[in-house]
Amino acid sequence: MKVIKIICDTNLWISFLLGKKLSAMRNLFANPDLKIYVCDELLNEFGLVSSRPKIRKYITEDDVEETYKLMDKYCCYIPIREKAISSVRDKKDLYLLSLADTIPADFIITGDKDLLVLGVHHQTKIVTYKEFEGMIKPREIF
Question: What is the mean pLDDT of residues 25-53?
Answer without folding.
Answer: 91
